[in-house]
Description:
The relative contact order is 0.07. The strands form two sheets. A four-stranded antiparallel beta sheet has the order 3-4-5-6, covered by helices on one side. A two-stranded antiparallel sheet has the order 1-2. The chain is built from six helices and six strands; from the N terminus they run ββααββββαααα. By secondary structure, it is α+β, with helices and mostly antiparallel strands.
Amino acid sequence: MIPSNLDAVDGASSTYIDETPVVAEPGAPAVVEAPRKPRVARRIPKTDSVLEAAVERARQGVLEIAPESQVGRHVSATIDGERLVTHRFEAFVPGYGGWQWYASVARVARSKDVTVCEVGLLPSSASLLAPEWLPWSERVRPEDSPQDEASPSDAAGDAVTTDAADAADAPVTTDAPVTVDAADTTDAPVTADAADATDAGVTPVAGEDDPETSAAEQPDAE
């Protein structure tokens, strides 16, 4: 017996709460709780005349994000849930062939006021879509990766190409050795005095190079 924390009212004695667990008597049948019935989900209605008829209200929602020239005729009305319908319209957007505008409309229970929930673009069965994305490890094929080892024929071809490139890049010299024709040279010996005069920048005078030659050319005084 555990006394409660409640105070007595009008001088009445305090009450006690018995929290002793109840033990079934031997031989007594066990108490079996009845199984609970599973909660049945509400079925989506097949029709909603109020929302299905709200075509113009759905079109007004689409025209808030798209020009009138890009919104075509009404295509379909699909019930997505309880008091929730999606209207679709043709879309004339460059680069989005076959896509359709959509506007989801809803209403509260027992009300005929239609509210636009969401608008946008959705692809249809005839839309042009991008291919399924693949990770890089699955996208690269063996022939896409470069070969680690080159074949001997490839190596020889590379060597020939390198030699040809080096020859083309080599500078071309125009300074050729100058040869002197033997006919242009004189047989006269060059004397030491003439060489010294040439080095000194003085042109030797004829008859003054060799004293013996000068003496031989003078007439005999006798």
